[in-house]
Design goal:
single chain; 523 residues; alpha+beta; 4-stranded antiparallel β-sheet; 22% strand; SBP_5_dom; signal; Peptide/Ni-bd
């Protein structure tokens, strides 16, 4: 009898092992060809288009956008927090989900969620990641008031607070591990609660993720995902045709017809909640070297020399448009359909501004990451030619990685500005251009200091609870921004992908690439 039981046990274990192997065989290894990677995967410090593609697989936001039922993501849905309520004008409470695990096996606690939003990490004096301040200016305190509840108190009424937690601000990190390694190391070896865990990260070549089978949201549908840097479009599409890659990003406009001609590949594009820009370096600092663009009249001349409407129509047809600065239809209360830029396309005005700048042919360096955004390489070549025709000595410094681009000297630098949904343009006007923004604070590539009148208005804007008054202050801030002209706003971003027909993948109106349960399957 004992021998029989032993034999049956071995047979059962063999069947179980065979079943597990079969299930793993059904889960594919996915390879995504991307144009680049950012230097960090720390949620706030690593906030960039290239990282946002990946972070949604590693982290869960406290609250998420309801992508499963709403392709616009305009409504909120529970995530690692199941409920939230406003207790009074200045107090919000959030109830955490039971049984959520981090990739290191530890259970997520209210203390972890509180630390994620804490003064110590992102908004206090000497915060570990001070860039988080731009999202948290209304915060007064964050506390785990019991095992299940996190309470956030604000200094002013903040009815949009929960919306802010769908941004990288809301990606939950494990307190003990984060503090033990610090944000720099965390950015290289991140741990989250998302459906996939990081097993390899080399910012010069690839990120590899593996399925996290203790994921609270269900079994991840992929065995692994590798995001591999392939800077050139021609190499990405060749790899897709050869079956080397399963998904690729960034198809230039003039290559779409070619891509659509390949059997077994599908081209998909979606509007994104971000805007493509060229940041001007407004700073005249000895440590950054000579910078003719510090002269505002030269910035005016360069802006006036570009016919943005015609450029965007040529590149995108009806798929995108060129907005007046910060005039975005996805924040309707702040949108003015009649608004026009302060500096419009006008070659005579451009020549006049150039004369006022007393420009003497000094070299203007434009740092560009190759393939940073769809069609951007074509656009910057066109703009450089327009500026040369005007008499400006521009030099394109096109590099293959962000670390090479994000450093001085430069006169202009490519950038994108996310306006991830919070119901207002706060993130755009203040998060990207306020005194705590990356443009104002980052050591290697900061490019402006917001003027005192802009900062004073921004502080009033943040404290203002009356919507009509808030809109009025917002418009005054935009007027100052346009007066200073710290960037050339180009077009609403369009994200596109080429996908092997081996997969059915649900894309969203966002740079994020969702590969969790329910979003991708094998055909």
């Amino acid at each position: 009898m004992r021998k029989l039981i032993s034999t049956l046990a071995i047979a059962a274990m063999t069947m179980l092992a065979t079943s597990v192997v079969a299930q793993e065989a059904e889960r594919p290894d996915l390879t995504v060809a991307v144009n680049g990677l950012y230097r960090s995967l720390e949620p706030i410090d690593g906030n960039s288009t290239n990282s946002l593609r990946i972070m949604s697989s590693i982290y869960d936001a406290i609250i998420t956008r309801n992508w499963a039922e709403d392709p616009e993501g305009a409504t909120l849905a529970p995530s690692v927090v199941t409920e939230w309520k406003q207790v009074d004008d200045l107090t919000w409470q959030f109830t955490i989900r039971d049984g959520v695990k981090f990739h290191n096996g530890e259970t997520m606690t209210a203390e972890d969620v509180a630390f994620t939003l804490s003064e110590e990490r992102i908004w206090g004096e000497g915060a570990l990641v001070p860039a988080g301040t731009r999202y948290t200016t209304s915060f007064a305190s964050v506390e785990a008031i019991d095992d299940k509840t996190v309470e956030v108190k604000t200094t002013v009424a903040d009815p949009d607070l929960p919306y802010r937690f769908v941004t990288p601000l809301g990606y939950v990190v494990p307190k003990d591990y984060y503090l033990s390694v610090g944000p720099e190391v965390f950015g290289q070896k991140p741990i989250g609660t998302g459906p996939y865990k990081v097993v390899e990260f080399d910012q010069a070549s690839h990120v590899k993720l593996e399925a996290f089978d203790d994921y609270w949201g269900g079994k991840p549908p992929l065995k692994s995902i590798e995001f591999r840097i392939v800077p050139e479009f021609s190499a990405r599409i060749a790899g897709m045709v050869a079956g080397q890659f399963d998904i690729m990003v960034n198809t230039p406009f003039d290559e779409i017809e070619t891509v659509e001609g390949y059997e077994g590949l599908n081209y998909v594009s979606r509007p994104a909640d971000g805007y493509i820009m060229l940041a001007y370096n407004t700073l005249d600092l000895p440590e950054f070297g000579p910078n003719p663009v510090a002269n505002v009249n030269l910035r005016y001349a360069m802006t006036a020399a570009i016919d943005r409407d015609a450029l965007v129509e040529a590149l995108w047809g009806d798929s995108s448009y060129s907005p007046a600065p910060f005039n975005f239809p996805d924040t309707p209360e702040f949108y003015d359909p009649e608004a026009r830029p302060l500096i419009e396309y006008d070659l005579d005005a451009a020549r006049d501004y150039l004369s006022k700048a007393n420009y003497n042919g000094e070299e203007v360096v434009i740092n560009v990451v190759r393939g940073a955004y769809p069609n951007f390489d074509l656009a910057v070549e066109f703009m450089a030619e327009q500026w040369r025709n005007l008499g400006i000595n521009v030099k394109l410094n096109i590099v293959d990685s962000w670390p090479l681009a994000l450093k001085h000297p430069f006169g202009l630098l490519n950038m994108s500005m996310s306006v991830v949904f919070d119901g207002t343009p706060t993130r755009a006007i203040w998060g990207f251009w306020g005194p705590d923004s990356a443009r104002a604070t980052r050591a290697d590539d900061r490019s402006w200091t917001p003027p005192a009148d802009f900062v004073a208005l921004g502080e009033k804007y943040l404290a203002e609870s009356d919507r009509a008054e808030k809109v009025k202050i917002f418009r005054q801030m935009v007027a100052i921004w346009e007066r200073e002209q710290p960037a050339l706003m180009l077009w609403r971003n369009v994200v596109n992908w080429v996908i092997s027909d081996k997969y059915t993948w649900t894309t969203i109106n966002n740079d994020a690439m969702l590969f969790g349960p329910g979003f991708i399957s094998v055909n």
